[in-house]
Amino acid sequence: MSALKKYELPPLPYKNDALEPHISAQIMELHHDFHHKGYVTGANAAVEKIEKVVKGEVSGYDWAGIVRNLVFNLNGHRLHNVFWNNMGPAGSKGGGKPGGKLADLINLQFGSFDKFKQIYSELMKSLTGSGWTILYYDEESGKLTFTTVENHFINHIVDLPVVLLLDEWEHAYYLQYKSNRNAYLDAWWNVVNWDDAEKRLQRHLR
Ligand SMILES: [Fe+2]
Q1: Model-level pTM?
Q2: Pick the CATH number of 100-202 from 3.40.50.12780, 3.55.40.20, 2.60.120.10, 3.40.50.300
């Protein structure tokens, strides 16, 4: 049997300042090196705690708290893994419009990219508190679907592949945009890596 592995913090797929001026280098550095790292550390600690419980090494444990902690940190880790790759420098890998099958689905379901962008922006801006906006592909219906996720897990649709997601936690924008979250949400479109979204979709098309 191979050795059990720990969760690891992957490097950003670009430099800290690659998404400027839309997302500052300072935000990217703190977001990745502190916040994402914290979720990785937390996920490993949660797994370690569970292993100790299994081995009978702790007493008086609280399963509800343990699993909540696991899901919070593990989802935090996995969501950020997608988020970094879903973005790229404006004008090269980021921004513009989707192509390929994603564009076909958007046009089929929304009529145009502009209409999709309008609807999706409304959804993004409707989120209260900390969370995410996520675009999924539903293999069963053959359609794109979306939701806002509170925290890292509330309102998440089970087992649907993620095509595109957006971090709306304050740590994602506050240093640059302060309380004007909508300005960050509007700027995010300039760094969306549509090729990455298309690749994620293609893995699940039949
Ligand atoms: Fe985040």
Answers
A1: 0.96
A2: 3.55.40.20
pLDDT at 206 over 80: no
pLDDT at 1: 65
CA 172 to ligand 1 centroid distance, Å: 6
Centroid of ligand 1 to alpha carbon of 80 (angstroms): 6
* H-helix or E-strand spanning residue 149: strand 143-150
Tokens of 119: 């609807």
Q: For residues 168 and 125, give the distance between their C-alpha atoms in angstroms, rounded to a whole number.
A: 9
- Answer for the pair 148, 104: CB distance below 8 angstroms, yes or no: no
Rounded to the nearest angstrom, the distance between the alpha carbon of 58 and the centre of ligand 1 is 32
**What fold is seen in the domain 25-85?**
Helix Hairpins (1.10.287)
Backbone torsion region of residue 6, taken as left when φ is above 0, otherwise alpha when ψ lies between -120 and 50, otherwise beta: beta
Mean pLDDT of the residues in the chain = 96
